Amino acid sequence: MNKLTLLISIVWLCCTSCSANHNSGTEYVRLLEDNSFELTENTTPIQKRIYQSFVNSIISKNTSPLDTMYKELGNMYSKNPSNVIVYWKAYLLYYKSIYYIQINDKDNSEHSINAGIKLLEELKRKNSDDFSLLALLQGFSTQFQSGIMAGRISSQREKNVKRAIELDPSNIRAYYVYANGDFYTPVQYGGGKKVEEYLINAYTGQCVPAKPEYLCQCKRA
Q1: Per-residue pLDDT tens digits for 35-61
Q2: pLDDT digits (tens, 9 = 90+) for 3-16
Q3: Which of 48, 66, 163, 183 has the most crowded CB, counting CB atoms within 10 A?
Q4: What is the CATH number for 161?
Q5: Domain count, the chain
Q6: 10 Å Cβ neighbour count for 206?
Q7: What's the gap between Cα 202 and its chain centre?
């Protein structure tokens, strides 16, 4: 996993969702604040639990911790279907793909990342965070493609991250994803021109606590 991809993952760990407007994450916060929306009896933030499952998978050298967490998310969705749970399922599949890359299992890594992409692509009424995560996964998936297909996925990634910024110009994760994609796009294809600009945009963002602490609000200063 390259350094910028790791950096983006860390950014997602710091701030899980923007809520500058209805389209960019307010719905997620509303759902999490709704007493009828029972995510889990475990009060630990979902994202931290996913990351801990990833760490446990690395330690145990198998995907059982991630699979158990994915099953729990599936049970949560069956009780309360919501975009936010689909978001976390896709996010978990991203880490599962990273796990497989770490053990040099490219086939399962590709399968996992494609499954995450499919979940987000089929999601209706996507908001800024959904588009940002989709773009992140698409960027990660290009390593499994070449030629025309890689170019097609890169174009889709750029389209989705632009849509994320359009829906919420204060979404700092969208700028990190954009910077990452621009950095690794070959110069002959127009890459490397805006990476600094978008990293600065992301760097000037700030996170403020939200209640409950499943999410935080991340906005550019």
Answers
A1: 334 445 555 788 889 999 999 999 999
A2: 545 555 555 555 44
A3: 66
A4: 1.25.40
A5: 1
A6: 12
A7: 15
